[in-house]
């Protein structure tokens, strides 16, 4: 049994606008911590309003890292973040402080919390010589997502249907892995799964089990969606009264400058993905003369923000929490099988997770701040290990801990609805059989089917009447 001192990490996750930054300051003050930004948009320079950086006066002199250090011209990857975050964590430890990872880009958080959570770090890619990308391959990777999907369908059809057609980042990464290693990404996922499980037989029956890098405490700050939606709408209004207009003007100027004689920047990459710029493009490109267009843009930004928050919750519930639960259960099993353990046993890669209810802001001090700080104190003093802490009487929070099976190939498929459209007027696409089944049962889908059927009946009736009238007219003429 190792006797070295474990390295603690606290991670604060949650949707946009739920209060992660506020809680991180309260926690850092209580535990002598420093904050590491885990938001993919807040790494870019400037744009404090549109990326929702925590205002400097509200940081209360707590050191913040990986915040506003990336130029707009750069694309910042999860692999870069992983390297930089781990270096910062080492530096924070060296100063005798506690690292606190905070952000809503949860694949960033996942890359730090777990070993082997990205394909670049998996045993599957590390054993192969990486090849230089050809000019033609770079052209495909830097081109439209549709071209990437078409190329993936040729080389790795299974992974081509794993991701949503709009998920350009992961589709691009999957093709890049194939180009540089010559191995199918779908094969590497399976190999990574088996090696993480210590299982080389490929039977695919076990849950994926990743190792935690650190002894980790995960706080999920959660709010009921209806209440959160109102706060998100209010936050957009506050951003408009702050410096959002000047920031989107600045971005638009750069957008036009970079376009020149070539294509304008890809809005699915880098800083251009930020919620707010794309939504205001119709107003900006129209010369900012129509108040009606402006109102539509504001509403579209609010819709996009609400939608993003729902996607974040789905990722935390369906991806991040199952992985956390798997590590916890495996560690418990290993501990129970260790005949030499004693009551002072401390797992160096254990995880404790808890959900704090931030629905009612009037109860923040008690239900979030005080409760969270108490749990954190218990964690750093080794009073809790390998468990999920949640009020058993709170059904809403317990429901968030449902852990669906991972690496289920039935989820590696997309389904397109021929009658329903998304907010952008595109055909609705579901990822996985579970999501497709939910869509088919949804009121939206059933309502659309009903409207389509009614329109068809009306059209048939009108056509029938037209034929009758034409026949009657012919009879009168005769």
TrEMBL record:
Alphabetical GO biological process terms: tRNA modification
One Pfam family of this chain: IPPT
Catalytic function, reaction form: adenosine(37) in tRNA + dimethylallyl diphosphate = N(6)-dimethylallyladenosine(37) in tRNA + diphosphate
The UniProt record lists the keyword Repressor: no
Gene Ontology CC, one term: mitochondrion
Annotated InterPro entries: Dimethylallyltransferase (IPR039657), IPT (IPR018022), P-loop_NTPase (IPR027417)
Listed HAMAP family: IPP_trans (MF_00185)
PANTHER family for the chain: TRNA DIMETHYLALLYLTRANSFERASE (PTHR11088:SF89)
The protein's name in its UniProt record: tRNA dimethylallyltransferase
Organism: Magnusiomyces paraingens
């Amino acid at each position: 049994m190792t006797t070295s001192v474990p390295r603690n990490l606290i991670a604060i996750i949650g949707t946009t606008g739920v209060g992660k930054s506020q809680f991180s300051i309260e926690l850092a003050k209580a535990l002598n911590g420093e904050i590491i930004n885990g938001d993919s948009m807040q790494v870019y320079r400037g744009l404090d309003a549109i990326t929702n950086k925590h205002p400097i006066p509200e940081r209360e002199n707590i050191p913040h890292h990986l915040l506003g250090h990336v130029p707009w011209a750069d694309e910042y990857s999860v692999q870069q973040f992983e390297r930089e975050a781990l270096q910062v964590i080492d530096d924070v430890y060296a100063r005798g402080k506690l690292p606190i990872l905070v952000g809503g880009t949860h694949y960033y958080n996942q890359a730090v919390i777990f070993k082997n959570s990205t394909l670049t770090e998996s045993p599957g890619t590390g054993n192969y010589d990486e090849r230089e990308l050809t000019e033609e391959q770079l052209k495909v990777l830097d081109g439209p997502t549709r071209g990437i999907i078409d190329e993936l369908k040729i080389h790795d059809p299974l992974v081509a249907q794993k991701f949503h057609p709009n998920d350009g980042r992961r589709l691009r990464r999957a093709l890049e892995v194939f180009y540089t290693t010559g191995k199918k990404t779908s094969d590497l996922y399976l190999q990574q799964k088996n090696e993480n499980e210590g299982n080389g037989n490929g039977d695919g029956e076990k849950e994926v089990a990743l190792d935690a890098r650190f002894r980790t405490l995960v706080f999920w700050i959660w709010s009921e969606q209806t209440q959160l939606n109102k706060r998100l709408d209010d936050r957009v209004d506050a951003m408009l009264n702050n410096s959002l207009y000047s920031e989107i003007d600045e971005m638009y100027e750069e957008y036009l400058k970079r376009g020149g004689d070539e294509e304008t920047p890809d809005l699915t990459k880098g800083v251009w993905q930020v919620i707010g710029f794309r939504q205001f493009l119709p107003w900006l490109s129209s010369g900012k003369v129509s108040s009606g267009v402006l109102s539509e843009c504001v509403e579209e930004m609010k819709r996009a923000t609400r939608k993003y928050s729902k996607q974040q919750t789905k990722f935390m519930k369906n991806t991040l929490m199952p992985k956390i639960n798997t590590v916890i259960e495996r560690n418990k099993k290993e501990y129970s099988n260790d005949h030499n353990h004693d009551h002072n046993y401390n797992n160096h890669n254990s995880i404790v997770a808890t959900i704090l209810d931030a629905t009612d802001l009037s109860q923040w001090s008690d239900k979030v701040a005080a409760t969270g700080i108490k749990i954190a104190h218990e964690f750093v003093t080794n009073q809790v290990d390998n468990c999920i802490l949640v009020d058993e009487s709170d059904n809403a929070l317990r429901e968030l801990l449902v852990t669906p099976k991972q690496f289920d190939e039935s989820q590696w498929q997309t389904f397109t609805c021929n009658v329903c459209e998304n907010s952008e007027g595109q055909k609705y696409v579901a990822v996985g059989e579970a999501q497709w089944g939910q869509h088919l049962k949804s009121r939206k889908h059933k309502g659309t089917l009903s409207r389509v059927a009614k329109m068809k009946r009306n059209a048939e009736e009108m056509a029938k009447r037209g034929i009758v009238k034409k026949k009657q007219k012919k009879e009168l003429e005769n």
